């Protein structure tokens, strides 16, 4: 039987440069499991996704992150892409939202370059996580242990390395939200 997360609201925090498949596949998994997905961003209108470095689709923003309340959501997803988390970690509202979300103990799932925002929020010290390999030094310098695994769960943090890991990433996300 498939995991059901009916009645659960999942925030996706992303902006221009988000890796399309790292946004669309987890969102599809959430919606197929009966959950509600909401795109939060640092900008109004729509965000421009990419497929590696090439422009891909655009996606409408549901709410500015500065107007979002952590209490409204049951989980947070941080998709990657190189530019997306770099823009997010430079935005005080996005960093504060991530920091506050992690503090609740609710599930936070970050894939590929997504953990950059976790590093900036100062929430990885003493934790173990994975990411795109180029973030390894940043993760270690932030006090975390970096592992090369398809998906790693450390308490409420769920992390994966790359798009190939999306099936396991989505499964762990749904399992944690349903728990």
UniProtKB/TrEMBL annotation:
The keyword Membrane does not apply. Keywords: Hydrolase, Protease. InterPro entries: C56_PfpI-like, Class_I_gatase-like, DJ-1/PfpI. SUPFAM superfamilies: Class I glutamine amidotransferase-like. Residues 8-174 form the DJ-1/PfpI domain. GO terms for molecular function: peptidase activity. Pfam families: DJ-1_PfpI. GO terms for biological process: proteolysis. It comes from the Bacteria. Belongs to the peptidase C56 family. This is Protease I.
